[in-house]
Amino acid sequence: MIDVSIVIPVYNEEESLPDLFGRLFPVVEALDRPAEVIFVNDGSSDGSLRMLLEEARRKDYVRVVDFNGNFGQHMAIMAGFSMARGDKIITLDADLQNPPEEIPRIVAEMDRGHDMVGTYRAMRKDPAITRKIPSKLVNWVTNRITGLNIRDYGCMLRGYDRRIVDLINMCKETTTFLPALGKRFAQNPVEIPVSHEERHKGTSKYGLYQLIRLNFDLMTGFSMVPLQAVTITGLLVSVGSLVFALYLLIRRLLVGSEAEGLFTLMAINFFLMGILLFGVGIAGEYVGRIYLEVRQRPRYLIRAVYPEDPKP
What we know:
CATH topology of the largest domain: Spore Coat Polysaccharide Biosynthesis Protein SpsA, Chain A
Helix content: 40-55%
Structural class: alpha/beta
Oligomer: single chain
Radius of gyration: 24 Å
Strand order of the largest sheet: 7-5-6-4-1-2-3-8
């Protein structure tokens, strides 16, 4: 019987893996309880898979799931969830920005009865302009939209009870945001601060576009507020436009026609066009997600599992 499963997505982390192995495995062995480590190779094009397989041969508690392509961090974690056999499942990034040494603290919180242990990065070591400030803004906006009240959506070092993971595995959504989904299913969640380190090797796999897409998945996957906000905005703009048209009509009757307001009208027209395009874009996001769901394509493809997969 496995008590703790640690799921780690890996995408082109050849430079970071030796340090990860050197710090993670002593932590796992010091837990003094049955544990397993599941690495999910998310279509790496470097030597990551070779290094993972070497460790799987050395350590009997290491398993490797190899994807047939790159499907993204959250899909890699979902695959790890489907393979995990532990009562407590912990997710960890491979870049060592969240130290593996924090894992015993998460396990201890779960031993106290918490079915989900969220974390937030204390003294975050990322650049302020490109990471920390935008992250705080996104966290604030997302909490207002979804009502989940998660302090740090970007920290993937988290613990999930077996019940929550089983519920997540039952969900067949094509796109999802796992920390938010886990928080929605949790009955006794808790958040704790964890240390954060600079990335010493390799480069971040999350560019601006990936971060924007991830936050769209989060907001549109857990709330109808964006659509409702567009509807309310359209209503307010329509009322404002009617009032403005009445004002222009009365002014024309009292003062007469004039051409000085031409550029003002053009500015208002461009503003209304921007509102319209924004609304169409939000509606398109939801329609696009419906399109992805109705196709019913596999969320990920597993090429192989090493060693041969024992059924949970």
